[in-house]
Amino acid sequence: MIKRLLCGGFCILFCMSCAEPPQKESVQERKAELAFERLLPKEVPDFIDDLDTGSLRTAVQKSMEFYGRVPADRTYPLGNLSVSVEHLKATLTVFLRLMDAGKLNRESINGLFDVYRASHTASEAKPLVTGYYEPILEGRLAATKEFCCPLYGLPPDLLIIDLELFNPARYSGQRLVGRLNENRVVPYYNRHEIESLRKLDKYKKELVWLRDPVDVFFLHIQGSGMITFPGEKPRRVGYAGSNGRPYSSIGKVLMERGVISPEEVSLQSVRAYLRAHPEIRDEVFRHNESYVFFQWIQEGPRGSLNVDLTAGRSIASDPSHHPRGALAFLISEKPRLSANGEVTGWEPLHRWVLNQDTGGAIKGVGRVDLFCGSGETAEQMAGRLKQRGRLYFLLKKKDLEKQ
User: Which CATH number fits domain 10-16+34-133+301-396: 2.40.40.10, 3.40.50.1110, 2.40.170.20, 1.10.3720.10?
Assistant: First the structure.
């Protein structure tokens, strides 16, 4: 999955999420209650979409595809609400009917849907909107002197322990990743052990070899990519799992060292600095113990719902606050780029989006990572998108008569 348990937009290079200490549980509960507020009709924004309806229909159908695979009574959270898949699917059905009638306007939305907005109290500021993309990289199926940086498939000794099976009330949705050391389960190898100490070489699980270790690192962040080969059709790699280690920001490391300012930090600036200073590259990488494993995929790029992502329409968010596959409206800003990729200004971003992905660094109420597409143009957009915004979720009114 491109977003993946680990891979968020570029904000994850300089933002870290920290667990609240136990004594703040009452504050967390209070925030959960205020996470989303149902808006009065006069508070609902104008739903003016800046993209084509074809991409919107495709994204909606992908969420419907996902809902068709899960039990209708399964529930997902919207803040402190618990919303059934049946209700989420009905919301999309009514929305498609409204779209077909050409009535995706404020008045029609107010008549058929309840609109929820992430509250300032819960998020302490307007939600942060970042971007991610699918890189296109050259590779080889066998190692060479030039192509010597591997992408690994899932190693056979990696264990996933579903804690919910042991105590559902206490460990709902929680799991551990590790390996056996004699008869004990210990944490899985970290990035340094895998890349520098070559702990996985014995398993021969290399899928493909890339040229640049910096490209490998950023592919781990994005979670999915297109690999090209001389004289052959491109192939896609997608997320297969991770080592379960916590994510740490290398962008934050570079800012703390004073080599990149907070104003200058972007995917492009961090990558350029690492390529210009190869003598510190591996040491900087070691600050992030998290490591991603890949698999070949036929289609994609795919999100955590195992459906193809739609450029400009699919978002990643925190599944502990936002319902999977759900319909939302995003308001923010996007960079205006010159021919050489420089930001010349900012312009409005306002569009319908579908919540079809996750990310380990995409945490909190209203936190959004927008999938920008594949290739260089998408990279330029995603690498610079770091703006405040608003996220609105729609749910069909429960008293709406079935049609």
Answer: 2.40.40.10
